[in-house]
Write a structure and sequence with these properties.
The protein is an alpha+beta fold and 196 residues long. The chain is built from 2 helices and 8 strands. 17% of the residues lie in helices and 30% in strands. An 8-stranded antiparallel beta sheet has the order 1-5-4-3-2-8-7-6. A hairpin with a 4-residue loop joins β2 and β3. The termini are far apart. InterPro entries: WBP2-like (IPR044852). This is GRAM domain-containing protein.
Amino acid sequence: MALNWAMVDADGSKPVPLPEEKIWHTVIKCQMSLDFKDKKAKWEAKGTAFVTNQRVVFLRQPMLPAPAENDRASEHLRSLNVPLSNLVDCRYMIPVFAAPYYEAGVLPVPGGNLPNEGPGVNKGILKIWFLEGGGNSFRDAVEEVRNLAKGGQHGEQLRELGEARWVECMHPHTPRSSIPTLHAQPPTKLARPQAA
């Protein structure tokens, strides 16, 4: 997980994909907070949340200008980049009198501009509020991609589905029969050890 390390396109509206990365889902008009209570560190911003086949990315919108000194880490959140494997204890909450939100524990990595050293540093708490809807589909996209990534055998199909979802969003008149679907493999039976 890294703070302000996501590369963005020229207009700052979406992340530059990593090798073999596809954007799976996008939700605009979100509010995010990242809190490391044990280190008294907290960041907040409004922007856009992305789910890819490798990570969750949050980009502040509108983007802030670059810091005057490039060698110094910014204290303001511009972007947050969390590998899917670093999201733990995820849940989606729908309060009665507030916007729904996605909450997850996030595990920091060394060199990611976040507290990750010293005694007592466990994880930060990430919350993303969906101010104009899209929370259910965000949660579903994260879970779907994480489940497929855990299986390992569907890596190629995951990339194809990412492309298909892009085609479906950008070209809604494409016949659904031409969009690939994921076919689950039947479970294999494991041989039980026999008692001696």
